[in-house]
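Schema walk-through. Below, the input block comes first and the output block second. Nothing else is stored per chain. Lengths vary across the set, and this one has 733 residues.
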Amino acid sequence: MAVIDLEKERKEILNAYKGLLRSFKTPRTAEENKIIRKAFNLAVEAHKNMRRKSGEPYIFHPIAVARICAEEIGLGTTSVIAALMHDTVEDTDITLEDVEGMFGKKVARIIDGLTKISGVVDQNISMQAENFRKVLLTLSDDVRVILIKLADRLHNMRTLGSMSKEKQLKIASETEYLYAPLAHRLGLNAIKTELEDLALKYRFPEEYATIESLLKKTQAVRNRFISSFSNPIKRALDKEGIKYEFKARTKSVFSIWKKIHKKSIPFEEIYDLFALRFIIESEADKEKTDCWHVYSIVTDFYQPSPDRLRDWISMPKANGYESLHTTVMSPTGKWVEVQIRTKRMDEIAERGYAAHWVYKDAGSKDSEVGLESWLTKIRELLENPTPDAIEFLDDFKLNLFSEEIFVFTPKGDLKNLPAGSTALDFAFDIHSQIGQKCIGAKINNKLVPLSHTLKSGDQIEIITSSKQTPKEDWLKFVVTARAKAKIKDALKEEKKQIANEGKIVVEKKFKDLQIVFNDKNLRQIEEYFKAPNSHELFYQVAKKQIDLHNLKEYEIRNGEISFKHIEIKQPTLEEIVVTARGKNDTLIIGDDMTKLDYKLAPCCHPISGDDVFGFITINEGIKIHRVNCPNAVQLMSSYGYRIVKARWKSQQMLEFMAGVKFRGIDQVGLVNTITNVISKQLNINMRSISFETNDGIFEGTIFLFVHDTTHLDKLIKALKEVNGVTNVERIDS
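--- output ---
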């Protein structure tokens, strides 16, 4: 065992602390320095016997989180103190009362918001979902909770290498699913990009390394192109005396990877690998004019694409992003994106609203208006006291990812909604009562249905009726979390009223049969009709889905009912999880000894050799998914405690169905050549085959049976060698 040099560690901790002090964006008073030092000393003492998985002292983590808050988000003293102390209440003997006594209510409230929930509140609710909801709830008190939480997650992702493979996958999936879109919605572009890249690095390490390597190899060529393209613009700006900073930003590895998979194109065919940015110095009242002036200079040299002009200066995004984007044609025939913004706009683009979030009494709060508007919408979502946590997250996540559209009320008031919003979403955005009574809308004076999708610039007038009530099918076309929540609330209330009517019917039936109306007797009836609870029993009775005249084979003694047949009690989710995990915590797929029922998930068709995991379902045993399944991120993130490790039994020679998609140049006899390769050369059975040709280009899909990934890789390699075939890839469904 290596000997730890405590003196050396002590110096390193002090150096990290000095680095934190240097990272502040704003000057501090002597009193602030004193209280930061107090928090540091307390955190060092509290964590003195703790070490991270990497072996380093634990105190390096809170110092690093505090530094991210100060340096990369631009937060002040209160946030740094909270970041230094953020794990003490959960992991040490320090209590919230201690924190409040030493640093005040504000710091204590932030730390309370950051303290994780221990254990699962309900067996059917993901602890990640509940914890995330608790953090969001604290937003109503202080937005710094979410900003420090993002800093905490960023440092955990930067140091994820010391964790086990399973932990890496779990944390990376959760990061991509929740934290990256949250950073995006708060306008923290630099943090969002790094979180996405790091999540990809641990989810698909080989693909990440390949893209990173290709970016390095093509760097010199890119630099030469950027230089020759930007020099004429720079000379013109210098000539006009415009002060500016020029940046060339290469696309993130994650965004390149996403484009490769979304458009099924190789790295070499991605034309927009970088964006050029001109950041100009401008006075507050001349910002818009100066940006458009630079735009005119750029378009003097290069022809712009009118379809690709994005004016986020006149109408900033909901997360505060302001910039002018244009895509122009270069002399080499390549499209190039050029971004034009002022220094103030660039600061908000990189560090979000936090860049202008004012914590002291002095100063204007104009920059907070947009963030406050967003926070208000979140608080409305959180008003429902008992929402299903997973459902809540899915609704909330919809609005995190979405881009905005801008629409107008009949009086000309501007409203911004997520892209894809319908007339009904707009109605609920105005007021929940208007949404519930909405029967239609007029868009630009033309009558449209509730499900009509809105476009930027639309002017909408909502038509209501006092007889209208929310319908179940409304949930199929609304996209905003607010509308979904309000519709669900209204439907629950309606169901509650119907259930009350059913309860009266059940009470009357009990009275007729001389049965006491109590919980014990109700449970017997619920079990008999297989109703999950009394509320559902009453509802189904009222809707005539359950007929109480169908009660048979029962006895009544002293007012209590009992049935002659005994129902087998279904195992709880907890019992299923415990059974599934077993002693070694790993499911061997194909092992004759296992007594567990498992199925291969149809969403990703795993085959032997794929990296896989098991997901424990309540009614269908264990579903085996590929690690890169489209649903993997959500399952690992939201239902972490129901994931079980899985591996293939090597001796198995079963056949698995796999899909292959290919593309190429159409020529005579091509289909015959492909089927010969599959059936005769490789002796593989095909289940289905389909081809389409269009203007000399063919596309085909084949579903066939293979033994494992090696077998499939051999097939893909053979198909790529067929003359005329340009692209071959595995598909999930």
